[in-house]
Amino acid sequence: MILMDVLRRWAGGRREAKWFQMMNGGLPIFSQFGTNIYASDIVQNCINVIATEMSKLQPRHIRTRENEQAIPNGNLNRLLRFGPNPLMTTSEFIEKKLWLLMMNYNAFVIPIFDSDFSSGVERRTYRALYPINPSRVDFLQDPTGELMIQFYFPAGVNFTFRYADVIHLRKKFSVNEMMGGGEAGQPDNAALLKVLQTNHALSQGLERAAKINAAIQGILKINTVMDDATQRAERDRFTKLVESGDSGILPMDLKGEFTQVKGDVKFIDKDTMAFLQQSVLNWFGVSLPILTGEFTDEQYQAFYEKTLEPLVIYFGQKYSKVLFTERELDVGNEIAWYQRDMNFLSTTSKLNLIKTMGEQGLLTDNQKLALLGYPPIPGGDRITQSLNYIDVRLINQYQMQNKTKAVSEDE
Predict the structure, then answer these.
(1) pLDDT for position 317
(2) Is the pLDDT at 407 greater than 70, yes or no?
């Protein structure tokens, strides 16, 4: 496996380590676990919507100096833009990472980099970023007290890294000191599981009821006392008569009476099913219009602010903290996750945005075209602005000139 070979080379030569001492006295050993709820189609659809939308993000290495942002040319931006590793595009990388985070409440990304200390400070050249899915995670300390993390995989291999060099994403990071999820460092889905079990039981009931309802078409009443064998023989005789009745007329003798059963039975009301489904949607912060793709601008904006934006902010903080040294952070380096391709605005809203921002001179011609889905044009970097606006610093001067002019005309 390419990934295993890379990790084996990268993790080689690590220092001896002992168990990390947790404050609650427990052992820092955690197994990845998150398969109980994911057989549900509603759960998978919710996660898929979030992962698909987040895969539109465009991560960039930016540098901010004196309130001006620039995107440096370099190896890191090339990885973030085209593909963090040889196995994935950027969209695939983000989607896989989201699925792992939503399923396990923990996701791990291993940066592969070369360090250069020739200038007296560490300078890193990144070669790849790999999302991994370990079956078990241990937290250790080396002899100097530095925190280490050891990953175990189903193939029987394990790797140890400095925890500071690992991008560890956590969902519902609460009672456990190191891991997201519940106290054991695993997904805490007990409340959701109850809803899904109820929904599954009702669905099974519907399936069984539908089969019974389709199978029983009528009741044959036999007007004589018969033993079991005779009843079976009479039922078989009746069935053969039904199957052979080409004309639709069923001949019967005086001892048989057939009553038709109409198949029109309702078992679960619509409100109950809607309540169960809505409980699952609320758990993931996905509304029904978002799930079906029939949302308005306002509904998508609410979905973005409630569910997606916290992840966008969190990714920026986490990736910046791990990928840059303290010195690099001090001089304004960070990873920004731009969401410009989360194009949720309707055509009317886009035109209104172009009008408002265009009049203020905030968009180039090509940016306006991009909002409408058109390709750039030669010379499209031109910025135009409406003459109906004035610099606030010139307002007083402009008004005084007009006042002076008005006085002169009156004289």
Answers:
(1) 96
(2) no
- Which amino acid is located at 272 in the chain? T
The residue written with tokens 């001006």 in the block is: 68
283 vs 160 pLDDT, higher one: 160
Neighbours of 300 (CB within 10 A): 20
3-class secondary-structure state, position 346: coil
Whether the pLDDT of residue 272 is over 70: the answer is no
pLDDT tens per residue, range 127-158: 999 999 998 899 998 888 899 999 998 888 88
pTM value?
Answer: 0.67
User: What is the torsional sign of CA 188, 191, 196, 198?
Assistant: positive
Q: Roughly how many angstroms between the first and final C-alpha of the chain, as a whole number? A: 91
Q: Decide if 30 contacts 137 (C-beta within 8 A).
A: yes
> Which of these, 279, 301, 275, lies nearest to 290 by C-alpha position?
301
Q: What are phi and psi of 87, to 5 degrees?
A: -95, -10
One-letter amino acid of 1: M
Give the C-alpha separation, 105 to 93, whole Å: 17
Mean pLDDT over the full length of the chain: 76
Please state, in angstroms and rounded to a whole number, the distance separating the CA atoms of residues 330 and 374: 39
Query: Which residue stretches of 83-122 are H helix?
Result: 90-104
Complete DSSP assignment for 166-183: SEEEESS--SSSSSSSST
For tokens 């394990």, name the residue: 158
Map residue 403 onto helix, strand or coil. Answer: helix
Structure tokens at 382: 């031109």
Output the DSSP codes for 29-50: EEE----SSTT-HHHHHHHHHH
Tokens representing residue 55 in the block = 């895969």
Size (the chain), residues: 411
- Closest by CA position to 170, among listed 238, 221, 101: 101
Helices (H) and strands (E) in the chain, counts: 14, 13
Phi-psi region of 197 (alpha: psi -120 to 50; beta: other; left: phi over 0): alpha
Describe the crossing of helices 75-82 and 90-104 by its angle, rounded to 10 degrees: 70
